[in-house]
Each structure stands twice: as C-alpha cells, then as structure tokens.
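FORM 7B: Structural annotation worksheet

SECTION A. Query
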Amino acid sequence: MLAGLCLFLANGCLGPQALIPVPRPSNDYAFAGVVVATGAVLYVAAGGCKIAGCPTGMVCDVASERCVRVECNLKNENEVCEPGTRCNLANGTCAEF
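SECTION B. Predicted structure
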C-alpha cells in the first residue's frame, strides 16, 4: 500500500509524464491466450468451483472441480433446485423465476 501511495505521489508530481507507462489496448491474440490459459491453470490449482462456487442452476462436481447443470423434473424439483428457483421443464434445469 505504501509503495502504491509513493508511485501515485511520484506520478502526480511529474505532471503528464508518468513514471509507470499505462497499458494500451491491443489486438495481441497470443498474449490474450496466455492470459486466459494462466487464469484457467490458477483456477484449477486453487480448487476450481470448490472455492469459487457456481452460478444458479449449477452445482460443483467435486471430482472434476467443474460446475455441472442440476437436472430436475417435477418429482425432484424441491430437493435439487435452490430456493428462488424452479424446474424449467423445457430443458430440465433449475432456473430463477
């Protein structure tokens, strides 16, 4: 935090010429691929959905550490669907209503 404050003050005192260059948007697809791959590896290494959780209508498969859709029907709707969701019979998954 102190380092960030020092950089902020140093950049502010120099006026428009900053000490740290501001990253510019680019179309470097290779770099974007590296960033996405790194994020995926870190996500899996950190425990995947066991730590990050899953969106509504999905549950964490502990073995694969990936989110999978909750399959439901009228008989098991109350057991598998979270509060605030109901079974969508068209696709067999829990959905917000």
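SECTION C. Observations
The CA atoms of residues 2 and 8 lie 10 Å apart. The longest strand covers residues 58-61.

SECTION D. Sign-off
Analyst initials: ____
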